[in-house]
Every structure is written in C-alpha cells, then in structure tokens.
C-alpha cells in the first residue's frame, strides 16, 4: 500500500507534502505531483500538509479519483534512475 496524489493537485503542485516526506517519493509529473508507490513507506506525513487535500492512503482514495492510483503507479514505468532523480521533488 502507498499514498496517492489525486485530482486536486492538478495545477497546484504546492510541494509542502514533499518537504515532509522522509523518503523523497514525490515526483513532478507535469501538471501534478505523483508518489512513487515503491518508495512510499506509508507514513502518512504528507497528507495533512497538502493544502488542497489531494493525498490519500490508497484504500481511501475517493471513488471519483480511483484512476489516480494507477496514474501514480504507471508514471514511473520506463523511467531510468536518472530520469526519476531529475523529477524528484524535495
């Protein structure tokens, strides 16, 4: 399980969530931030820091935003380590 960034982040990308993340699992996906599910340690520190309430535990993602679970996961498909590092938000 991991935390997931959902639709309210689109166009916002505040970054307060990334600043408190102990494992640097946030990445810039262009219009929004996404969480690397393989790096997320499920600590939940990011969710209360999000000013637009866009971050949820995977099992708590609202039904209307369930597609964002896959969107966060597939963003990393095919990215090299260098690309992932370049897109990391800290």
Jot down its keywords.
single chain, two-stranded antiparallel ribbon, alpha+beta, 3 helices, two-stranded antiparallel sheet, 90 residues, 4 strands, Alpha-Beta Plaits
Q: Please provide the count of β strands.
A: 4
Q: Tell me, what is the CATH class?
A: Alpha Beta
Q: Give the N-terminus to C-terminus distance in angstroms.
A: 22 Å
Question: What is the CATH topology assignment?
Answer: Alpha-Beta Plaits
Shape: globular
> What's the mean pLDDT score?
96
Q: Largest sheet, described in full?
A: 2 strands, antiparallel
What's the gist of this structure?
With 90 residues, the protein is of the alpha+beta class. The chain has helices at residues 16-20, 67-74, 81-87; strands at residues 3-5, 26-28, 33-35, 55-57.
What would you note in describing this structure?
This protein is an alpha+beta fold and 90 residues long. The chain has one domain: 2-Layer Sandwich (Alpha-Beta Plaits), CATH 3.30.70.20. The chain is 22% helix and 13% strand. The chain has three helices and four strands, in the order βαβββαα. The longest helix has 8 residues, at 67-74. The mean pLDDT is 96.
Topology summary:
Elements: E1 3-5, H1 16-20, E2 26-28, E3 33-35, E4 55-57, H2 67-74, H3 81-87
Antiparallel strand pairs: 1-4, 2-3
């Amino acid at each position: 399980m991991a935390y997931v960034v959902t639709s309210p982040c689109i166009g916002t990308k505040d970054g307060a969530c990334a600043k408190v993340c102990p494992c640097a699992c946030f990445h810039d996906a262009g219009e929004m931030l996404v969480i690397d599910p393989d790096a997320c340690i499920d600590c939940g520190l990011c969710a209360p820091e999000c000013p637009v309430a866009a971050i949820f535990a995977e099992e708590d993602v609202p039904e209307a935003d369930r597609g964002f679970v896959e969107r966060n996961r597939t963003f990393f498909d095919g990215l090299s380590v260098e690309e992932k590092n370049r897109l990391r938000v800290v």
